[in-house]
Amino acid sequence: xxxxxxxxxxxxxxxxxxxxxxxxxxxxxxxxxxxxxxxxxxxxxxxxxxxxxxxxxxxxxxxxxxxxxxxxxxxxxxxxxxxxxxxxxxxxxxxxxxxxxxxxxxxxxxxxxxxxxxxxxxxxxxxxxxxxxxxxxxxxxxxxxxxxxxxxxxxxxxxxxxxxxxxxxxxxxxxxxxxxxxxxxxxxxxxxxxxxxxxxxxxxxxxxxxxxxxxxxxxxxxxxxxxxxxxxxxxxxxxxxxxxxxxxxxxxxxxxxxxxxxxxxxxxxxxxxxxxxxxxxxxxxxxxxxxxxxxxxxxxxxxxxxxxxxxxxxxxxxxxxxxxxxxxxxxxxxxxxxxxxxxxxxxxxxxxxxxxxxxxxxxxxxxxxxxxxxxxxxxxxxxxxxxxxxxxxxxxxxxxxxxxxxxxxxxxxxxxxxxxxxxxxxxxxxxxxxxxxxxxxxxxxxxxxxxxxxxxxxxxxxxxxxxxxxxxxxxxxxxxxxxxxxxxxxxxxxxxxxxxxxxxxxxxxxxxxxxxxxxxxxxxxxxxxxxxxxxxxxxxxxxxxxxxxxxxxxxxxxxxxxxxxxxxxxxxxxxxxxxxxxxxxxxxxxxxxxxxxxxxxxxxxxxxxxxxxxxxxxxxxxxxxxxxxxxxxxxxxxxxxxxxxxxxxxxxxxxxxxxxxxxxxxxxxxxxxxxxxxxxxxxxxxxxxxxxxxxxxxxxxxxxxxxxxxxxxxxxxxxxxxxxxxxxxxxxxxxxxxxxxxxxxxxxxxxxxxxxxxxxxxxxxxxxxxxxxxxxxxxxxxxxxxxxxxxxxxxxxxxxxxxxxxxxxxxxxxxxxxxxxxxxxxxxxxxxxxxxxxxxxxxxxxxxxxxxxxxxxxxxxxxxxxxxxxxx
Length: 872
Fold this sequence. Notes:
Elements: H1 2-16, H2 31-39, E1 45-48, E2 55-62, E3 65-70, H3 76-89, E4 95-112, E5 134-148, E6 152-155, E7 162-169, E8 172-176, H4 183-192, E9 198-202, E10 208-217, E11 229-237, E12 241-244, E13 250-254, E14 260-267, E15 270-275, H5 283-292, E16 298-315, E17 327-340, E18 344-347, E19 354-361, E20 364-367, H6 375-384, E21 389-390, E22 435-439, E23 446-450, E24 464-466, E25 471-476, E26 483-490, E27 498-502, E28 508-513, E29 522-530, E30 533-537, E31 541-548, E32 553-556, E33 563-570, E34 573-576, H7 585-594, E35 600-607, E36 613-620, E37 633-640, E38 642-648, E39 656-661, E40 664-665, E41 673-677, E42 682-687, E43 696-701, E44 704-710, E45 715-720, E46 729-739, E47 742-747, E48 751-756, E49 761-764, E50 777-784, E51 787-790, H8 800-809, E52 815-834, E53 847-862
Parallel strand pairs: 3-4, 8-10, 15-16, 24-31, 41-48
Antiparallel strand pairs: 1-2, 2-3, 2-5, 4-5, 6-7, 7-8, 7-12, 9-12, 10-11, 13-14, 14-15, 14-17, 16-17, 18-19, 19-20, 19-22, 21-22, 23-25, 25-28, 26-27, 26-29, 29-30, 29-31, 32-33, 33-34, 33-38, 35-38, 36-37, 39-40, 39-42, 42-45, 43-44, 43-46, 46-47, 46-48, 49-50, 50-51, 50-53, 52-53
């Protein structure tokens, strides 16, 4: 039994033994052998998928295979010791942070069975009370993420977060120049060492040492000190000692700067995102977070969802304004993203986007004086604070020699080249502090409507422009900043808005519209963008425009609106227009066009019977093509005994056209398109309202004058006995009269006429014609509206005369007989009304039908072709 137990123990020991059998050390090893092994120790441990060799996921190599360490069930303090030994083994200094990371997929891992104390030089020196080794291969979503301090340190003090600043180089550790150790570099040092924001800065030596020093130029948005611009300098003042606040338990990670990102907390050396599961965190809590980060005021927080669960700290702050410490480990896919102000803030204002400007230097905040500021710096400040754009303030007198030499395109105020605030501290005693108010967008411009003379329509609302007139819309920007372009848009809210863009002249753009039309009516929007932010347009300014007919001219004292003495309205007063040198047929043509009276036939001077009276003197710039008289001229009050007479081509009223067919006027039913049956007679009537006596009418058929008749009582009738295909075409009436010593004409609307062979009568159930295309005997059907109805026998006018008319219309010879037939019940039929003498060519050419209920119908028999038989 003892042998069996001993054998099992040996086999179990082989399972859990270290993968590398030679890792056992003895106390008799020589120092140089130990140092040799330690120099090669990092070959079986590494940090991967990090920013460099000193950060990333901790992995170990066993049996030639690299796997992560699965230490999810290890205490947090022990996890920190693993990281401490790993940083030491990598030659990367001390541990800055550890995170128990949750991977999206399972990773190959070693399940460890050893514990580190933190004093070991390599992970293989770590062991537990029984053994040292890996238990087995596993797949795990958990891994240990480690960040080591590899390039900098604070020395000379007992405190970990205080001392002289040194950076690592190929030659060892170098001091830092005091000139480059500004607030941004201090902040990078403290953060990278896992400490809080810098608290104070003290000069180490007043002497300049002839040695190599490192000089940095950090902007503050770098993630690590090594990302800052740096260079070596032979002579400079040795860097100051720095004291950082104690190791912070909060940080913002993953953002563009140190003052924004996912909020994480550290508990028992483990960093995890914080989740506000009970929505207990208030703005005052996040303000404390921003203070801990050494940032300015709190800007915003958002709750972001991750694709997978990961370890988090669940917080519950109740009502305390200090940041809560009641954290509980759990898993969640919800994290908090916080944004704080960087190195700029506005204080003592109604909101965080308005107030007195302060900037940070080290851990101190200083006011900014107007004499140190510029327009461009104001623009950058509002952008830096995520508050948009500065409001216009004409009381600000910015100078040309600011501390902040901004171009206006910088994202943060700290990105502007600047003079240190301390260099002007003696001037701060008489500082006129900058007060700044930011808005989401640049302020709206001014917008105005101008008529052709350039005056603004300020007397009416909404502004009016007149059809045919030129008008303009001006947009003016009141901004101290350089304007890139000004934009005007119309048809706002439609699928196809109109848009015009101009480069400004003296910060103003004028958009000219040569002729106002109905399409110009609506709402217009004006906005602009600045040279510094071309992709963002300002707040818009709107104006509504009405387009109306301009009724400021008239022709009076005649029988028509298109001839007579010219009068014009201006300033609400109608006056005749005096005949002066500038008046000609060109101006008369504009008047006729404005009155929609055609072209100008004549214009002349006429004397006023009362002698010298009030009139308008017209000053012209017309070429005759304008839409309105005041679009090309202007008037002034003038006493005159003369006036202007204008005669336009459109003085005659438009005539009417009517077509009559089968005793009905068809123009009322089909005013544009009329269908006539072949063989039927029709007539065209032309008429005009009484205006001038005499004159004559002509029928225009297919664009050619065909026949004419004198106007009798302002009317003429044109008869067409039988319609055929030649009558198909377009008809209109042309009225001609001789007045004002000229022949004038006016044309009606046109009618389209089509002539077709359409049978309005039909015989059913009888003898076929010779060509077998129609029946020549049977019950008689007649057309009513768009259908055929049986003809009722209940009529007193039906006889052989009408029967022969039907046979002749059908081409079936003459009538043999006609009679009544009885039906089993009453049904809808047609009752015939006649005015026929028997010689007509069509039954409905001399008669008409109306609907009727009857139980008897008309039957007739025609001769049909020669030798045709009666099939009744």
